[in-house]
Please model this.
Amino acid sequence: MTGTSTPSGGPRATNTPTPFDDAERRIWSGRAPAYARTYAQLCAHPVPALLDAARVPPGARVLDVGCGSGTVSAAALARGAAAVHAVDAEPGMVEVTRRAVPDADVRVGRLPELPYADSSFDAVLGNFVLNHVGRPLAALAELRRITRPGGRVAVTIWRAPGAPGQTLIGRAAQAAGLTRPYWLPALAPEDAFPRTPEGLAALFGTAGFLEAECVELAWEHLSGAGEWWAGAEQGIGAIGQVLNSRGAEGVAEARRAYDGLCAAFRSADGTLVLPHLALLAAGTA
Model:
């Protein structure tokens, strides 16, 4: 039976989607293969640190929330987790993870209401999933609900403002005069929080976690110029929607701006060296 209780003192989760949630479903529908070919490698970088922060021990029961292409699930199994479960709101991501990690139990489900009983897991991991939910505080409260007392929850999000590599395509889109489509809202003001170490740590504390802490992660992602462009051109993420908001003409204009901006990141062999910043937060349930 699925648990539905809310941690004492925490926000009450609701399964009513926000406009932000609805837009996320539209953005990601059918894009799992494109994500696996492009941005999955970028998002894999923090995974070892994420498992460290969750203190995943051998024999643990682990949940990978927002499993994407299954990178976290595979890493948890490699560390000796006894049982790995995974969940994603996009059915295509579920299928990709099932193929990539056949030993994981993978289901469709979305925050802030997941199909698991109270205190089900020793560790819960969310790699960049909090960027994609309309009620981040309620989402964290749900992760606390399904984690056993004393268990750990660890998540990553993108820092804002981002590093130059993160904003490269966005700056090219801006140079082309492209803007967010009308149907692509930002978080409601009451659900927004500072994407800083202090802001994310405070959100963990408000959700009822003990020993809440947050650190900044910085790294340089290496990519070919065409490879880096391809994900957004295929409509992945909010930036992909902005890039395609004016059709082929807008994409072509942004690509011309992008080609010029790439010069600042191109190494001697032509590879782009793209600085990125993320936040890693963890707490005890």
